[in-house]
Amino acid sequence: MNVVIVGAGSVGMLLATFLAEVMEVTVVVKREEQLRNIEQHGLWRKNLDGTVTKVSIRGLTALDDISENSLIIVAVKYNQLQELYPKLRKLPYETPILFVQNGLAHFEEALSLPQETIAFGSCLFGAQKENEYTVIHRGIGVLKLAVERGNGDTLQSFYKVGSNLFPVEFVENAEGMLFEKALFNCFINPLTAILNVKNGELIKNEHTKQLLQELYEELMTAFPEQKKSFSFKDVVTLCEKTATNTSSMLQDRLLNKKTEVESIVGAVIKKAEQKGQTVPLLKTLYRLVLALEGEKM
Which one is catalytic: 181, 204, 228, 241? Predict the structure, then answer.
């Protein structure tokens, strides 16, 4: 099976480099310049140990020229999905599609597509795009996969990719998986984007660590069932493991791009309100990120 990755940002590129070691991979990019770079150089992954892995892949600028026996992995940011949905609807009914966006807003939208098999992924690894053909593997983290509709056999090829450096885990509840990831993102992403710091700084500074603690208590009050999934210690551990990472929300801010605060933080706020719960601290962080976007957008 050919794997077609739509989107060549940090997540798409990192997935492509690992998958291309065991199967045929095509990457769909938007810009001709990046396509030329990929055709000339392939894709390079800078590993945690300092080595560089180079893989050969096929590059395209449209979804029109893919083989029928393909798995589509959608790795674009949420705010690019609306433009992409009409193109995905034209794909054959039998074509499985895997979405690997942050947040929750895309869950129901993706399920409105006509394809037989729709799956979702939650990426907990660290990745940073260095240039048009190079991605840096910033931290080991599991890739969680869940099939919400259809046949999961098409995702079994991911077992070939799983390793200590790139662990893969299959879970049953796609929406629950996405919500858990969104909660974790609520701790790191908005604060790092507002303060312009790397993830590890949040637990080095006593004031930001206190903010994390207060935010944890607020979210666990709103979603008490999530206490079974993670503790505040897990939040601290995540900051430690990704200490040198620049969060995706901060990366977007630094590049003057629209962040995913709406699909991540906004979606969690909406879920809390649907339960009759208030999350004032999270809502403040949400509005601060939106205010910062307003300065540059």
Answer: 181
